[in-house]
Write a structure and sequence with these properties.
Layout (H helix, E strand, L loop, with lengths): L5 H11 L8 H9 L1 H33 L17 H6 L1 E6 L5 E5 L4 H10 L6 E5 L6 H13 L2 E6 L2 E5 L10 H4 L9 H8 L1 E5 L12 H9 L3 E5 L2 E5 L7 E3 L5 H11 L5 E5 L5 H12 L3 E4 L5 E4 L8 E3 L4 H13 L3 E5 L7 H9 L3 E5 L2 E5 L9 E3 L11 H8 L4 E6 L10 H6 L3 E5 L18 E6 L7 E3 L3 H13 L3 E5 L1 H7 L3 H7 L3 E6 L5
Parallel strand pairs: 2-14, 3-13, 9-10, 17-18, 21-22
Antiparallel strand pairs: 1-22, 1-23, 3-5, 4-5, 6-8, 7-8, 10-12, 11-12, 14-16, 15-16, 18-20, 19-20
Length: about 525
């Protein structure tokens, strides 16, 4: 039997999304018609989640044991800010008292996903590059800084939000294993190293555990441009007598692969045509920075980016765009707590799809010249059928906080994840807090999905509204970590959230910003938690 109101909800969602509905009525009826089938699928998802958590605990044990020998495997850790701060971050947790409305103003930080790529691009020139509006406190920024210094670049901070990068000489072409495994940025250094030294050695990448994210798109493109590659002992060895422009078609519009190839193509001999490229705002920001440095880069209307190689690039001064992921998290925090938050510096142009979705679920906001104000009410959001997509679609990094918002919507919602195959594990912890979600392997959407006919739990059904209660949680990755914090902010009671090294790698002092808005969130050593 179809759950009451499901047909109406999905019909409304279809109208709201101009026909881009995620699940047809027939799909939904078949999905919920068999409670036994639903139970089996949920049980499989639960077992898979438990196995993943057990593996993560075992990996953390290896890290702690390795500390005693000085041979720490950083693939099992969230990246910290360097030095002794990683240990501090892993041994601390957040204690969050929920149910307190957030009110006030907070400034949107510079985007991590732009800032780190710009730092790497500065290696293309011997001149000094200045980057402003940098999120200096982020673990990923500090890791990138350490990678650049390990290669011979000079990185200084004239003030907290300004980084100065100068790579007069790159005297090392091997990205250290310990640094390269902390995130996925090492592969971006291959272009600058190949141009300036003729060879590069990078480790297999680390980063968040949200499903396999191989770098074969990057490496295939570099090889088409003339790089010769050998893989041995967990390291990629690349060398070239000179990169040359080439036609490259990406099998999927991967953001980092597009960035790697753009950076490499700027100094290649000839013209590089990147078809099916990603066009996220962070990529456009990278293109703007490279153009200031003297690069010739054209963006065409059909996801094609054309790079005409030049002989030399020079230094440039650039302001990093604001962090759209942080803005979304702060916005949803305002709605969940029935508060009123103005995010100074939030850019409407980068949030169009998110803002449209807010309207579709019945939430309101105001936009002015220097920010956006998000204000909640006692009326619950409307349910929606939603699917993630590459830009300008609904961003996959917005999926987790929006899923949390939909636990408070009145009715049944559907989310179809089309970017990553394993990004719903966090929902089991939300269920422990009182949420009502179910995971399914079938595609509950209309966007052509790479995971169709695959055994991946990439569709989620959410029934609301469900009051949430406090719990003890462990963050598995950055974006799920943000969802846990949001859940704790609206839950009744005091939650303890571990694994905060993830959130502090990707969000600029998020706990301090939330405290400035009235949140009761305390960062405490794990051994002294209440």
């Amino acid at each position: 039997m179809t759950p009451p109101g499901l047909a109406h909800i999905l019909n409304e969602a279809a109208r709201d999304t101009n026909g881009d509905v995620l699940a047809t009525i027939g799909q939904a009826e078949r999905l919920f018609g068999s409670h036994a089938g639903k139970g089996r699928e949920m049980e499989r998802a639960r077992e898979r989640h438990i196995m993943r958590q057990r593996a993560q605990r075992q990996q953390r044990t290896v890290v702690r044991m390795a500390r005693g020998t000085g041979e720490m495997d950083t693939t099992t850790m969230g990246a910290g800010a360097g030095g002794g701060q990683e240990s501090d971050r892993e041994d601390a947790c957040y204690q969050i008292e929920g149910g307190i409305p957030l009110r006030g103003e907070v400034r949107n930080s510079g985007a991590k996903n732009a800032a780190t790529k710009l730092m790497v691009a500065a290696l293309l020139t011997e001149d000094r590059c200045t980057l402003r509006n940098m999120p200096a406190g982020l673990g990923d920024v500090t890791i990138t800084e350490e990678v650049l210094r390990s290669l011979g670049a000079e990185v200084t901070w004239p003030d907290e939000g300004t980084a100065s990068v100068r790579a007069v000489q790159l005297d090392n072409t091997v990205v250290p294993l310990a640094l390269g495994r902390k995130n996925r940025l090492a592969v971006l250094t291959t272009g600058p190293l190949l141009h300036r030294a003729g060879h590069a050695v990078i480790p297999a990448p680390g980063g968040d555990r949200i499903g396999p994210r191989p770098i074969n798109f990057h490496l295939d493109g570099l090889q088409r441009m003339g790089a010769v590659m050998d893989y041995r002992d967990g390291l990629y060895h690349l060398h070239t007598d000179g990169l040359k422009g080439a036609p490259i078609e990406l099998p999927f519009p991967s953001v980092m692969a597009t960035e790697t190839l753009i950076i490499a193509a700027t100094l290649a001999h000839g013209v590089t045509v990147i078809a099916n490229a990603a066009i996220e705002p962070e990529i456009i920001d990278l293109i703007k920075f490279l153009q200031k440095m003297g690069a010739i880069i054209e963006q065409r209307v059909d996801r094609t980016i054309v790079v005409e190689g030049v002989q030399r690039l020079h230094g440039a001064d650039h302001r990093v765009i604001s962090d759209r992921n942080e803005a979304v998290s702060l916005a949803i925090a305002a709605y969940l707590t029935h508060g009123n938050v103005r995010v100074i510096g939030a850019e409407q142009g980068m949030l169009l799809t998110f803002l449209n979705t807010l309207y579709r679920v019945g939430l309101d906001f105001t936009v002015d010249d220097d920010g956006i104000t998000f204000f909640g009410s006692d009326t619950p959001p409307r349910p929606i059928a939603l699917e993630t997509d590459v830009h300008p679609g609904f961003m996959t990094d917005w999926q987790q906080p929006f899923a949390l918002l939909l636990t408070q919507a009145h009715g049944m919602s559907v989310i179809h994840e089309t970017i990553y195959e394993d990004r719903f594990g966090y929902t089991q912890d939300l269920n422990r807090m009182g949420a009502d979600t179910g995971l399914f392997t079938r595609c509950l959407g209309e966007i052509p999905c790479r995971f169709r006919e695959s055994d991946f739990y990439h569709s989620c059904v959410i029934r609301g509204p469900t009051p949430l209660h406090a719990a003890e949680l462990t963050m598995p990755d950055i974006r799920a970590g943000a969802a846990y914090i949001l859940a704790a902010l609206c839950a009744q009671g005091t939650s303890t959230v571990h694994g905060i090294e993830h959130i502090e790698r990707g969000y600029d002092h998020l706990d301090a910003k939330l405290r400035s808005l009235g949140a009761h969130i305390e960062r405490v050593p794990t051994q002294t938690q209440r």
